[in-house]
Design a protein that fits this description.
Fumarate Reductase Iron-sulfur Protein, Chain B, domain 2, 36% helix, 416 residues, alpha/beta, FAD/NAD(P)-binding domain, 15 helices, globular
Length: 416
């Protein structure tokens, strides 16, 4: 166990604000932060864990990977003049304590309903929606295109940031609640909306953003997108002969890709990012961890194209940039070359627009599923949440949108 005095000292830093800005404004799922911290002060760890799990079955995951500095801790009153309460640290501690002491929260299923809901995708949005519906007694089937469940939690976030055991623990709990899981079932191919509407009373789409953003560097081998690259790492199908790796991008996915490359025995790993560190979207702690692993960050650099012999990549043509009015602008006559045998694009993922359009789902101008304030899509009985309807969604925000959708599904089913 962590040093108990240190834990209590961090807990005592919480002012127990009556307005609870950390909870009401900072946390997308409105975790009862002051209350669970007050239980830590009293050394009532079971009660603290129950408070967290009652609100959010993903609490262990959120305490581990959530950007607390932008969410709960970012709204902490202490942060105005001092340092914020270590909310993420304390949440992670309580979940680890429960795991070490084999203490489990009892997940209850309500009175059985005769309505059935199909959930497409087993990422955080899909799992959360399924959980909220099952708690109320609805029959739920989760359809997943991959072999294993968890979506981005399993295939997109590396184990050095999030243990797969934590994800599996949630899956196991949902199975105990008699949620049905069906893997290797591809939306748009094996299952379609029109067919599902004949069998289910409602459909939730939590398929995430699966199309990587890239641009043309030339016809070279060893050019990957972050999704392919991280899946290879997470499936332990390590890519060989990576050599000198360049990751293009500046978000958390870029950090994950770079650190994964280190573990796949790359000769060297650099992150080339067109903005400066101040404008980098990655969490500061993720950048620090990447540097500790040996990753070299190169700021104010835009990659233009690849150069090499035949299809063998050897170097990248780059240009230096400068930040003007928060935009990265190329500097005149600042072109240079950078050694690279492999490249990983980590500049974002977007929904599969073609797939969604074939299902006649209305999209907005950004290519995301168009939903109303209750996550209803343009198709009756079809709802959506997570990355498929919200750009750059965090795990906690995906959970929040799924919770909104689940409430709408329940309301609509009960009114029919």
């Amino acid at each position: 166990m962590e040093n108990l005095e240190e834990i209590k000292q961090k807990a005592n830093w919480c002012l127990q604000c009556k307005t609870r800005p950390c909870q009401e404004k900072g946390c997308p799922v409105h975790t009862n932060i002051p209350e669970f911290i007050s239980k830590i002060k009293e050394e009532k760890f079971k009660e603290a864990y129950d408070i967290l799990q009652e609100n959010n079955i993903f609490s262990h995951i959120c305490g581990t990977i959530c950007p607390q500095e932008d969410q709960c801790e970012g709204k902490c009153v202490r942060a105005i003049k001092q340092v914020p309460t270590s909310i993420g640290y304390l949440e992670k501690f309580i979940n680890e304590w429960a795991e070490e002491n084999n203490y489990e929260f009892e997940y209850k299923v309500g009175e059985e309903k005769d309505k059935k809901v199909a959930v497409i995708g087993s990422g955080p949005a899909g799992l959360e929606c399924a959980y909220e519906l099952r708690k109320q007694g609805y029959k739920v089937t989760i359809f997943e295109k991959d072999e294993d469940y968890g979506g981005i939690l399993r295939y997109g976030i590396p184990d050095f940031r999030l243990s797969k055991d934590i994800i599996q623990n949630i899956i196991d709990k949902l199975k105990k609640m008699e949620i049905v899981f069906r893997n290797n079932t591809c939306f748009g191919k094996d299952i379609k909306i029109d067919d599902l509407k004949n069998e289910f009373d409602a459909i939730f789409l939590g398929i995430g953003a699966e199309k990587p953003s890239t641009y043309d560097l030339g016809d070279f081998e060893n050019i990957y997108d972050s999704d392919t690259f991280l899946r290879a790492y997470n499936n332990r199908k390590y890519l060989e002969k990576l050599g000198d790796v360049v990751v293009i991008g500046g978000g958390n996915v870029a950090m994950d890709s770079a650190r994964a490359a280190i573990r796949m025995n790359a000769k060297s790993v650099s992150i080339l990012y067109r903005r400066d560190e101040e404008h980098m979207p990655a969490r500061k702690i993720e950048l620090e961890d990447a540097i500790k692993d040996g990753v070299i960050p190169v700021f104010l650099t835009r990659v233009i194209k690849g150069k090499g012999t035949g299809r063998k990549l050897e170097k990248l043509e780059c240009i230096k940039t400068e930040i003007i009015d928060h935009k990265a602008i190329d500097k005149v006559n600042s072109e240079f070359e950078y050694k690279a045998d492999s490249v990983v694009f980590a500049i974002g993922l977007k929904p599969n627009k073609e797939l969604l359009q074939k299902q006649n789902i209305e999209l907005n101008e950004y290519g995301l599923i168009k939903v109303d304030e209750n996550c209803r899509t343009s198709i009756e009985k079809v709802y959506a949440g997570g990355d498929v309807m919200e750009s750059k969604s965090t795990v906690c925000r995906a959970i929040s949108s799924a919770r909104i959708a689940a409430k709408a599904i329940i309301s609509d089913l009960e009114s029919r």
